[in-house]
Amino acid sequence: xxxxxxxxxxxxxxxxxxxxxxxxxxxxxxxxxxxxxxxxxxxxxxxxxxxxxxxxxxxxxxxxxxxxxxxxxxxxxxxxxxxxxxxxxxxxxxxxxxxxxxxxxxxxxxxxxxxxxxxxxxxxxxxxxxxxxxxxxxxxxxxxxxxxxxxxxxxxxxxxxxxxxxxxxxxxxxxxxxxxxxxxxxxxxxxxxxxxxxxxxxxxxxxxxxxxxxxxxxxxxxxxxxxxxxxxxxxxxxxxxxxxxxxxxxxxxxxxxxxxxxxxxxxxxxxxxxxxxxxxxxxxxxxxxxxxxxxxxxxxxxxxxxxxxxxxxxxxxxxxxxxxxxxxxxxxxxxxxxxxxxxxxxxxxxxxxxxxxxxxxxxxxxxxxxxxxxxxxxxxxxxxxxxxxxxxxxxxxxxxxxxxxxxxxxxxxxxxxxxxxxxxxxxxxxxxxxxxxxxxxxxxxxxxxxxxxxxxxxxxxxxxxxxxxxxxxxxxxxxxxxxxxxxxxxxxxxxxxxxxxxxxxxxxxxxxxxxxxxxxxxxxxxxxxxxxxxxxxxxxxxxxxxxxxxxxxxxxxxxxxxxxxxxxxxxxxxxxxxxxxxxxxxxxxxxxxxxxxxxxxxxxxxxxxxxxxxxxxxxxxxxxxxxxxxxxxxxxxxxxxxxxxxxxxxxxxxxxxxxxxxxxxxxxxxxxxxxxxx
Length: 678
What we know:
Blueprint: H1 3-48, E1 53-57, E2 62-65, H2 67-73, H3 77-84, E3 91-98, E4 104-115, E5 121-130, H4 132-154, E6 157-163, E7 168-171, H5 173-178, H6 191-195, H7 203-214, E8 220-226, E9 235-244, E10 250-259, H8 261-282, E11 287-291, E12 297-300, H9 302-307, H10 318-321, H11 324-339, E13 344-350, E14 356-367, E15 372-380, H12 382-400, E16 404-409, E17 414-417, H13 419-425, H14 429-432, H15 447-460, E18 462-470, E19 476-487, E20 493-506, H16 526-543, E21 546-554, H17 557-582, E22 589-594, E23 597-605, H18 608-622, E24 626-628, E25 631-633, E26 637-644, H19 651-667, E27 673-675
Parallel strand pairs: 26-27
Antiparallel strand pairs: 1-2, 1-5, 3-4, 4-5, 6-7, 6-10, 8-9, 9-10, 11-12, 11-15, 13-14, 14-15, 16-17, 16-20, 18-19, 19-20, 21-23, 21-26, 22-23, 24-25
């Protein structure tokens, strides 16, 4: 073969080999470029993760980690790698690492091994999760939970948690105690642990409330029920709230339990009292009602309903139930009760037959949450008023009599006395009520006398005679007395009636009392008169009575005294004192003030005319001649009058006014009376 051909053939072979080599090189380059691109993408994704990541080869040598790893540990990267190198294989554990800021933090270390198809270890990849804040929050929650539990234990409240999805429940010791758990019982750990202990009478309503709560029909679960583990009623209150997911479904339920037995027993007692009160009001034998401010009835009791003839009443106005003039009077009393605090009224309310009855009503407003209402009761006083009027008539008759009257019960205790008795004895009725009549026994009679007296009353039904009786001031009065026995329908004694008429008043007092009397006329002197006047003012103020002060002066007494001498003048004063005493009542006061001046206290006058009658009688009496030293003389007097409390309530002013009126009578010609005018 030609050498040039051989060379040419050799060149061709070399070119072909070069071409093949270039082609192979190009193929490898493309594959490496693709791998490099894939690696770059993987590296980019690796560095983009926000968790610190690392790679270890099959020998445990670190061959890579992402940027966040560098950033997280910084200057502490070396000691971090050293710490991580001590952990091998698949694991999930909590460790402590020092971060770039030098702070130790709790982290979660997660490692996973990579194996080939032959299950040979290729390497390990791992990441680090910062759980420091989560652990701190968890610790805070645990601490708060412990504090809450302590607080609940202190307040005697229990605590529970219930995981809805897993039905796992956790109950506190107090909860177990309140639900009746003992050490021998199985540990409660589900919702049924609670529901199984609910008293059978309450389980239906408990289940319903739990169902409504879980269906989000109620935001708070609150239920009260009895616990069947206890022999007596034992009540608990359950109150819980749900922690929900984003779809508003309950994940966990947390709540409390507390003992409400005392509260329920109190509520039961209050309910019983309420029922008792309602029953009491419903069966009261008088009207009971509640109205709104517009006068519409909100409530009436059975008695009122029957009184109205069982008319429809609810929501009706007064004017719809009664005639116009009656409704208007009731409306006016309602208004007074609401706005003027006048609570007591007398109202005419017709019954179902149209007969008018008189009621004493007591009305009072009550402030409720939503409105103010008027509550009231009405008592039928028709018969009572008629009886009172009858009694008042009898009382007026008794008080009008001039005799002293006492009514006793069958044990001889005082039930009633009339005014004359009070005036004669000095006792007030209230001082003697229920006191034995023996309180008036006089020492002038012995016990045998009184025994005989009452035996005669019991056997004959009456006793008549003269009787000494003791007054309040320990003086004795001689009276003509009639004692009668009063009998009931079975002829048994039920009361005694004493009628007395005074004869004279005998005083058994200390000798010092004599110093209070005028020695000539034996009348109270000026000092004593002032004391009696003060007492009369107090008495009149207490009982709202009138009295008159009558000032009497003998006309021309000085001339009489000069002509007849002192002895004749003294006789004239005694005769005038007698004439004055003829025309006053036993309870009135006559006193000699000085010289020829006398004063009379006419107590408890009912009208001015009572006083004028006395003055006219005195003037008439003075026209009758008197014998002085065998000479018949006719005297006259001038009289001045003042009235308590019309003219004054002061003793000195009353006396001065009466004195001025007396001088006016003298100026008008004497032998007349005048009443003080300001």
